[in-house]
Specification:
Helix content is about 15%, strand content about 0%. It is mostly helical.
């Protein structure tokens, strides 16, 4: 066998395979002749279920400043000078009348100073959690089922 004979054989094999494929395509959908054994593929549909996340909304967490008027009673004190005069029984004294005499009495009072400072009174946290629930999906599926029809005295043994 020569070098070119190999190519010729390959071409013949390709041609045979193509002819077989064409016969199979022509026979699809038609009754098949029974040789020694028959083969029928049964098919059915199944559901392909895929999940994906979509954004359904959002939550914003922020602070806002509000004003609140507060009234606080603070006790404060101050000094009062009480002048009392009383009569004396004209008792004699050794002290002469002198120049003016002055007495100094300091008077004090509490004043309220108001300042403000900031303190932490609480905290707010936010987190997400995933909740799983069940959703029903409805669809119609098609399925091929083999039917065996007997005509005449044909004996059928069904081996499942």
């Amino acid at each position: 066998m020569g070098f070119f004979d190999l190519f010729a054989e390959e071409e013949q094999d390709k041609e045979k395979r193509n002819n077989e494929k064409q016969r199979q395509v022509r026979n699809e959908g038609q009754d098949k002749e029974f040789a020694n054994e028959a083969h029928l593929d049964l098919r059915e549909e199944e559901l392909d279920i895929h999940k994906h996340r979509v954004e359904t909304g959002d939550v914003e967490l922020h602070k806002q400043i509000v004003e609140e008027e507060k009234e606080v009673n603070v006790p404060v004190s101050h000094d009062q000078v009480i002048i009392e005069q009383r009569a004396v029984d004209h008792e004699p004294t050794e002290e002469p009348i002198s120049a003016e005499e002055t007495m100094h009495i300091p008077v004090t009072a509490e004043r309220v100073d108001v300042e403000k400072h900031t303190v932490v009174t609480g905290e707010v946290t936010a987190h997400k959690r995933s909740v799983e629930e069940t959703e029903q999906v409805h669809d119609v599926l098609h399925k091929e089922v083999a039917e065996v029809e007997k005509h005449g005295d044909a004996e059928v043994i069904n081996e499942d």
